[in-house]
UniProtKB/TrEMBL annotation:
<dbReference type="GO" id="GO:0016747">
    <property type="term" value="F:acyltransferase activity, transferring groups other than amino-acyl groups"/>
</dbReference>
<dbReference type="Pfam" id="PF13302">
    <property type="entry name" value="Acetyltransf_3"/>
</dbReference>
<dbReference type="InterPro" id="IPR000182">
    <property type="entry name" value="GNAT_dom"/>
</dbReference>
<dbReference type="InterPro" id="IPR016181">
    <property type="entry name" value="Acyl_CoA_acyltransferase"/>
</dbReference>
<protein>
    <submittedName>
        <fullName>GNAT family N-acetyltransferase</fullName>
    </submittedName>
</protein>
<feature type="domain" description="N-acetyltransferase">
    <location>
        <begin position="16"/>
        <end position="190"/>
    </location>
</feature>
<keyword id="KW-0808">Transferase</keyword>
<dbReference type="InterPro" id="IPR051531">
    <property type="entry name" value="N-acetyltransferase"/>
</dbReference>
Amino acid sequence: MKTLTPKDLFLTTERLNLRPTGAEDADLAVDIFTDAEVMRHFGPVMSDADARKEAVLAERRGAGGRIGVWTIIDKATEEKLGTVFLLPLPVEEPDTPWYQVVADRYPDDDVEVGYLLKRSAWGRGYATEACRRVLRFAFDETPLEEIVAITAPANTASQHVLRKCGMVETGMRRAYGEDCPGFQMTRRDWAELGKAGPGGMETGVT
């Protein structure tokens, strides 16, 4: 399997730069994982030390770099806003099965798209912009036929983001050891969004 270069993994949108998460992003992990409001629909609030351990896990990349976590950066200010990811979706496990993020192969489980933003970045469309860009990457750079997503049942804001990205609701499904609203996008769905023209998929990205 061809390993993509750092340049191949650097993604942009109109307002954002997305780069693979690295050791320099431990501060962002602390900002996100120690904030009770950010973690309300995601999991227990972490200590600084545990957040930094999570940051180390987020440096892992699989499938030649195609599976992993990207740090979302505001182009204008260079502020780190959060993360967006393509990672294996756990079924009964409470956390990402990081052991499936292996350099030379794709995960055995479904691959999910997801994101976490700092509170200061909420409500400005960044989640939709970043998720759309990573979906484009998935269908341009991987052979995966579908990408899935889940949210907490009460997380209506994230459900709205996924619908805006063109993902289709699939009903409740098992993930992270709970029953969660499920979403998916197939390669065919993505192609249909492209045919829809402006407003269908994001424009002006490289």
